[in-house]
Amino acid sequence: MLAVNPSLAPKPRPTLPVPIKVLIADDSAVVRGLVARWIGEAGFTVVGTASNGRIAVEMMTRHDPDVVLLDIDMPELDGTEALPRMLAASPTVQVVMMSTLTTRNADISLKCLALGAVDYLAKPESNRGVTTSDAFRAELVERVRLFGAARA
Description:
By secondary structure, the protein is of the alpha/beta class. It has six helices and five strands. The protein has one domain: Rossmann fold (3-Layer(aba) Sandwich), CATH 3.40.50.
């Protein structure tokens, strides 16, 4: 029988954390671009961006995101219509609704939470507000971290 030298045995490799995969759906190209950049800079993987809910739903099966950042007001298929389809395609996906903070959208956001969204994030009122809001960026990154880890 051969003796095995323990020092020559392969050592287990530490497992690297799997990056959190994020899909971004917003009809504003400025918002999509900024959010994608911020998400990437925070160490997450942006698996896709969509300008409307229909495209976002189609991307669900191809990319299997952990977190979806979903705008409410979009053409073709808005966030309230896309949300149930996303959850049907991937019941464990974590969907965070994003919208400007108005009374109407606050009511819609509550409806989305009842339909299965995990959280709501108020976007600043204008694209300029989005580009200059450090608080919005920090909240966004923290929610992706929190809900992405919850799915993993």
